[in-house]
């Protein structure tokens, strides 16, 4: 049964992985903030892009309002105690502007796992390990001292908050595309990132939203719903140039694109929020200038 989406204020963010210099990175962070975006988030890779925690710390240091986040950490790359320590530190140093995005690893991540000397387990095992990590990270950020001996992780009297540091309220984003991951996001996350194909039409997106909403959540809340836009008008990321026809996708009702004037794009997003509940939209840094007028019309509304 389709559930009624909760209406939340719009939030907008930019996904960026790297720049050629430090000056270019700090300039990008400032431009994202000045354009009215709420977040700057980064993917997590070994060979591609900057290392996420130092890059996000730098972005937070040169901005005042902008939130920063991972989109998303590959759970296999780090022990959850290490993740909790990094997350707590960045939360403190940014004045509470850090959001922790987590995922079980992309289907094509086997090569990157191998770079770290890690095996690449079947999806079910990686998902189980992610859930175990989420539980441990949440307890550590809440200030607990934790000893666990789980199927996937061990920790003995682990704590990550220095003396005098208050528990850190770090929003957790969980990304998923399949039914199981979507339900895990619905159960455990503050933000559920819908990993849907850019050509997905509303019926498919509604099914993903319903998976999130159907989760047996321990509290009475529901997660904020997030997705990534892949085309703004006729502007697409370079890696999709020649492979993506924005006009054709818009005509068939693809939810990963917006088209028309800024006012028309804003209307499309309002209507989708009304029908689906999706209120947190991201664009790649190549699309941020094209999308900025829409952000100006909708931010915070």
Number of strands: 13
Number of domains in the coordinates? 1
Helix content: 25-40%
By CATH, the architecture is named Alpha-Beta Barrel
Fill in the keyword field for this structure.
single chain, 301 residues, alpha/beta, TIM Barrel, eight-stranded parallel β-barrel, two-stranded antiparallel sheet, 10 helices, 13 strands, 39% helix
Provide structural commentary.
Strand 9, helix 7 (202-213) and strand 10 form a beta-alpha-beta unit. The relative contact order is 0.15. The chain is 39% helix and 19% strand. The chain has an 8-stranded parallel barrel, surrounded by 8 helices. A two-stranded antiparallel sheet has the order 6-7. The protein has 301 residues and is α/β, with parallel strands linked by helices. The model has no long low-confidence stretch (mean pLDDT 94). Helix 1 crosses helix 2 and helix 3 (80-93) crosses helix 5. It has one domain: TIM Barrel (Alpha-Beta Barrel). The protein is built from 10 helices and 13 strands. The radius of gyration is 19 Å and the shape is globular. Residues 21-219 form the Luciferase-like domain. It holds the Pfam family Bac_luciferase. One of its GO terms (molecular function) is oxidoreductase activity, acting on paired donors, with incorporation or reduction of molecular oxygen. This is F420-dependent oxidoreductase. It comes from Nocardioides luteus.
């Amino acid at each position: 049964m389709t559930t009624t989406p909760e209406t939340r204020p719009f939030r907008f963010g930019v996904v960026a992985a790297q720049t050629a210099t430090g000056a270019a990175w700090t300039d990008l962070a400032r431009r994202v903030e000045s354009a009215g975006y709420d977040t700057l988030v980064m993917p997590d890779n070994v060979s591609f892009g900057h290392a996420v925690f130092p890059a996000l710390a730098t972005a937070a240091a040169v901005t005042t309002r902008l939130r920063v986040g991972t989109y998303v950490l590959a759970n296999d790359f780090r022990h959850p105690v290490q993740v909790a320590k990094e997350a707590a530190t960045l939360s403190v140093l940014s004045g509470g502007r850090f959001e922790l995005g987590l995922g079980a690893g992309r289907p094509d991540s086997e090569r990157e796992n191998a770079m770290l000397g890690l095996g690449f387990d079947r999806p079910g095992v990686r998902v189980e390990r992610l859930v175990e990590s989420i539980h441990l990270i949440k307890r550590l950020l809440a200030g607990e001292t934790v000893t666990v001996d789980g199927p996937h992780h061990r920790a003995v009297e682990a704590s990550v908050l220095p003396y005098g540091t208050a528990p850190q309220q770090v929003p957790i984003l969980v990304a998923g595309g399949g039914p199981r991951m979507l339900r895990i996001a619905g159960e455990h996350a503050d933000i559920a990132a819908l990993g849907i194909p850019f050509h997905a039409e509303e019926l498919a997106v509604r099914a993903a939203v319903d998976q999130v909403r159907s989760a047996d959540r321990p509290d009475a809340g529901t997660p904020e719903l997030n997705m990534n836009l892949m085309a703004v008008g006729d502007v697409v990321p370079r890696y999709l140039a020649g492979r993506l026809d924005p006009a054709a996708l818009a005509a068939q009702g693809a939810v990963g694109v917006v088209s028309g004037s800024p006012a028309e794009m804003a209307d499309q997003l309002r209507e989708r929020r009304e029908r689906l509940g999706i209120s947190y939209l991201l664009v790649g840094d190549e699309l941020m200038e094209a999308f900025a007028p829409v952000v100006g019309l909708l931010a915070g509304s």
